[in-house]
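Each letter names a residue; structure tokens follow underneath. Both lines appear below:
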Amino acid sequence: MGMPEAQPQIASAAAPDFDAQHFRRTLSQFATGVTVITTRASAESVAAGAPPFIGITASSFNSVSLDPPLVLWSMATRANSLPMFRDGTHYIINVLSASQLELCQRFATLKGDRFAGVDYRLSATGLPILSNALAWFECHNRSRYDEGDHIIFVGEVERCGVLDGSDGPLVFQGGQFTTTAPRDP
């Protein structure tokens, strides 16, 4: 029996054999946690009357490395708040608990001051950590990568915390919000 023939190396990806709607539907099968990422508004925005902080809902969060402690998330290049996240030195990734659906929706859709009436405390770098978040990561804005219609942010975690006794994570899958539940063995 001979050795299998070596496959030729392909220099670039083939054109997709699916449309955007099919791709989105396929991606939606992957369950992901929901976060609110917060940072400081630009000095120019605040001087013009904008709130001092901005925050967005994102489900594109993932771990990268334990040593050094790195995490990543992504943001659409068309997002109005992109310059503040891209140019800022720090941000907070707040992992939402199952009881925080209203916060998820507020930071995804509300215009104006998304922090009005929201309970939070300030981190060591003066950024909002949402009360009752399941977990949070205070990150140095280490690097950014332009990929397709998004920017991938890699954050070096300087501080983090976890809420004990929470009701579990808020999860997004198949176009719906849910939470995790233990399975019977």
Q: What stands out?
A: The chain is about 15% helix and 40% strand. The chain has one domain: 30-167.
